[in-house]
Structure prediction request, 752 residues.
Amino acid sequence: MTDIRFSLHATEGKARTGVLSTPRGNIRTPAFMPVGTAATVKAMLPGSVRETGADILLGNTYHLMLRPGAPRIERLGGLHGFMNWERPILTDSGGFQVMSLAKLRKLTEEGVTFQSHIDGSKHLLSPETSMEIQRQLGSDIVMSFDECTPFPCTRDEAATSMQLSMRWAERSRAAFGERPGHALFGIQQGGVHEDLRAESAAALREIGFDGYAVGGLAVGEGQDLMFSTLDHCVGHLPEDRPRYLMGVGKPEDIVGAVARGIDMFDCVMPSRSGRTGQGFTPRGPVNIRNARHADDPRPLDATCDCPCCTDYSRAYLHHVHRSQEIIASMLLTWHNLRYYQRLMQGLRDAIATGDFTGFAARFDEERLSGDIEPLA
Amino acid sequence: MTDIRFSLHATEGKARTGVLSTPRGNIRTPAFMPVGTAATVKAMLPGSVRETGADILLGNTYHLMLRPGAPRIERLGGLHGFMNWERPILTDSGGFQVMSLAKLRKLTEEGVTFQSHIDGSKHLLSPETSMEIQRQLGSDIVMSFDECTPFPCTRDEAATSMQLSMRWAERSRAAFGERPGHALFGIQQGGVHEDLRAESAAALREIGFDGYAVGGLAVGEGQDLMFSTLDHCVGHLPEDRPRYLMGVGKPEDIVGAVARGIDMFDCVMPSRSGRTGQGFTPRGPVNIRNARHADDPRPLDATCDCPCCTDYSRAYLHHVHRSQEIIASMLLTWHNLRYYQRLMQGLRDAIATGDFTGFAARFDEERLSGDIEPLA
Prediction:
């Protein structure tokens, strides 16, 4: 197997487009990774996820280690075969979910002991166990184990947390070892503080990773503070490696983060919103539950080429969502994932042709223009 | 548009195979109709339903008249366009569901007044309103409005109920009128009593229908009584028209009913069972929730060509079902519908080649042979 390589094809300002190539396929950047928490992108078959244009999925270490268990997935041939997705998979380290979902957490230098939120069983997540679990899953892009810094927190808390994460990053690197065809990404921490972000980036560069994530954002700080942090924190990361903004985000967050030099994203928003009846469109989100859609023969998004928009009316989507039919989640999730992938393709094309600034301006103008006209 | 025509291609004993041709496509018989209650076959896209081999769907008048409403569906272009299924649709008359689901029912000679189980709104279902609603839906095969005879009931109750249904059948015929390209089926009643079944059949033949359903079975009487009733009741129906056994059933019910001269079936079992974790196989049903599947790398049904069986292990299905993931319902429903359609294809092929008796014997032998061997 070849190693994983990152090639930049074009830049415009800080925005970049390129390809991260892996033995399991190329990842076009800027890339959006649909979230497949429990070995499924909820309400989608993997072939349909691929049809939306996704090059890579994200899997959640915390969920999979608890159910069905990483050794079981390894025995069954790894996560790719288990969930029928042969293209690249990135797994998170479990660090974020263990702090938000697990019970009876205890944080030490060694790692985090906790009880499963599913059955109360006891577990340890540490740099070493996280690397082992992600190896058992067969992840192509492994994330180093870090502490999710709470928000808000004091500067001292952010510094202490970041420094622990950097010691864990070094242990993650050592535990990961040499695995041709598999990449290990480090995660920058430091909250919203530029000097801490710089210190974190320097520590990660010293250790050496195949890619670099920006962690600790999209945790409630708001878009302004996220963007102002990205303005200073991204520049400390190596230019020749992919940069991944974890857990982001809304379409407008993604456009703003690409403008600030980010290459990779993941977020539950398109799939989760689909299940709650929200559809993304170039003119902003639509709540299909609203009574005004009950008789509307028009598609959710007339510009979209997905089955939800080519085969069904807003009236139908309204009906099946109100009736709590599974097909509502299937169709709206498909559309939202397609919307995100079309956005990413638009960003890549715009950067490649030097039109990113214009693209971003048109994106904002259309998004703020309001939903389609009321039916006559 | 041409009229709807029924051609018998081969018979073996009472078993028959043929084609019911409609302007929207041919229906190969014996046929199984997946149930699309609320304008969706639950957890399936229509294209996938077609891929399982279904030639026709069933829609429920009662559910659709209450939500989203038949006039709305008519305004939106009819049920076919609304739910993106261009092939034939049979709609029931609402008579069965109104008795099992509606609140504050009042039965008179005119029809049934009731309150919606969804929002408490008041409605009337009668031969005339049922025909009008089914016309608004755009149904290809319309069912006459009948009373669902309770089970168990006395012979007198069965007679009184059947005679009311026959008066309603005549009103249904008159209200349906002449609609080229659309068929009206009558429904035989009479419980388990041969003389009442004969009287009902004679009344229906006198009125004249494009097809004949056997109603009032599969309501809790058990397979023995259902089969012994079919033994005498089917022969009273015209040979040159399709015969439809409503709401049936288990795979073994279908095989036994085909042996007794039935051509068409519908049942929620394959889709409902899929959502509760039951998968049909030639060796009997499998409960995927059972812990013995947790590590089983084998497909649900090694003989099946559906995506559930070609792309996933029992271990995966077990995991996603236990995790309450939507994909579990999607995959198991797809498999079960494919299982049913493969069974129907097997029945058609067997009758066409004079092998029906052998097919039925092999079907029983395999079904009773028990599930696949335990994993070594």
Summary: DSSP finds 15 helices and 16 strands in chain B. The longest helix of chain B spans residues 326-352. Chain B has a mean pLDDT of 96. Chain B touches chain A through 37 residues (CB under 8 Å).
